[in-house]
Amino acid sequence: MGANTAVAPPHKGSGLRTGTAKEPKRPRRRRDDRKAAWLFLAPALVGFALFYAYPTVRGVYYSLTDYNMLTPPAFTGLENYDHLIGDDQFWNALKVTGYYVVLNIGSQTLLALLLATLMHRLTRSVALRALLLVPWLVPNVTVGLVWLWLLDANLGFVNHVFDALGMETVGFFNSPGLAMPTIAAINTWAYTGYTALLLYAGMLQVPQHLYESASLDGAGEWRMFSRITLPLLRPVLALVLVVSLIGSFQIFDTIAVTTRGGPMGVTRVIYYYIYEQAFAQFHMGYASAVAVILALLLGVLTAVQMRLLRASRSDLA
Q1: What's the whole-number average pLDDT of the chain?
Q2: Which of 113, 241, 266, 290 keeps 20 to 30 A from 103, CA to CA?
Q3: Is 265 in contact with 230 (CB distance < 8 Å)?
Q4: Strand, helix or coil at 218?
C-alpha cells in the first residue's frame, strides 16, 4: 500500500472504536421537593401550633391548678380530677349529653340516608342539593333564635297554629320531657342536608353495573340498598358518624340561646357545664379538667367507632 493512500475512517456501525470514547451519562439527580413542601405546610403548621397545640398544653396545665382569672394559677396537682369524680353535676351533664347524642345522631343519620338514597335513585337535581345545604349554612345562633321564636309558648307561630286547630299550646322549651328532643330536632333540621350530601357523594362511587345486575336478578330497592349500597358506603358512613359524634358532644350554641341549660338542668350538656364553671363561677382550673376529660373521652369513642365500623376498609377494593 502506498504512502499517499488514504485510510477511510471507521463506520459508526462497524463496531470499531474511534480514538475518543463517549463519556458515560451521569444519572439525573432526583429533584428534592422537601423544602418546597415544608414552605407550603408552614402556614398550616403555624396556625395549628398557635390555635390548637398551645391552647391544649395550656389547658392541661390549667387543669392542674386553682385558677380564677383574677389571681395567678396555683398548682394543685390532681385535685381538680379528684373533685370531678365525685361531682354529681358533671356526671349528670355527661348523661344529658349522651341522651342528646343518641337522639341527634339517630334521627340525623336515618333522615340523611333516606334523602341521599332518594336523590341517588330518583333525581340528581343540583337545585335540590343546594336547597338541602341552606340550613347548614345558617349560623347556629341564628337557627336557635329562629326556632325559639317559632316554638314560643305564647307568641310562637307553631302554637298559634295549634290554637287555631283547637289544640292546647305546647311549651317546647319549658317542658322537661320535650326540651331536649326539641333541641335535637332543631339540630337535625340544620345538619341533615349536609350529612345527606356526604352520603350521596359516597353513593355516587358505587359502580352502577352492580345495581343493574341486581335488578336483572329481580332484587327490589330495599334489597339493593341493604346488600349493595349500605356495605359499600361503610367508609363514608363511618366518617359521617365520627364527625356527627364529635359535633353532637360539642353542642352549645342552640342551648345557649334557647334553654340555657334548663328547665331543671335537663339540657345542661357538658359544654354548657364547662362554660358555667369557667365564665359564670370562674373555676377555670376545674373547667379545664372537665375539658381534658371530655377530649380523652371523645378520643376513645372515636377510636372504638372507627374500629367497629372498619372505616379503613372498603368492599370496593
Answers
A1: 87
A2: 290
A3: no
A4: coil
pLDDT digits (tens, 9 = 90+) for 20-40: 555 566 656 666 688 888 999
Residue 305 confidence class, pLDDT cut points 50, 70, 90: confident
What cell was used for 315? 368492599
C-alpha cell at 110: 336515618
Q: What cell numbers appear for 28 in the block?
A: 439525573
Q: How many CA atoms lie within 13 A of 82 on its CB side?
A: 6
Residue 60 parent element (H or E): helix 54-62
The H-or-E segment that residue 245 falls in is helix 234-249
Residues facing residue 66 across a β-bridge: 74
Total residue length of the chain: 317
First to last CA, the chain: 77
- Distances in Å between the alpha carbon of 261 and those of 43, 134, 149, 180, 297? 39, 27, 18, 10, 22
pLDDT at position 3: 45
Q: Do the Cβ atoms of 111 and 192 come closer than 8 Å?
A: yes
Q: Region 120-135: what's the mean pLDDT?
A: 85
Measured CA to CA, the distance from residue 260 to residue 118 in angstroms comes to 37
The DSSP letter of residue 12 is G
| DSSP class per residue in 107-146 | HHHHHHHHHHHHHHHT---HHHHHHHHHHHHS-HHHHHHH
- Run of H or E residues at 39: helix 34-48
Please report the pLDDT score of residue 215 as a whole number.
86
For residue 102, the tally of other CB atoms under 10 A from its CB is 12
Tens-place pLDDT, residues 170-216: 999 999 999 999 999 999 999 999 999 999 999 998 888 888 888 88
Phi, psi of 66 (to 5 degrees): -105, 105
Return the number of other C-beta atoms located less than 10 Å from residue 311's C-beta. 18
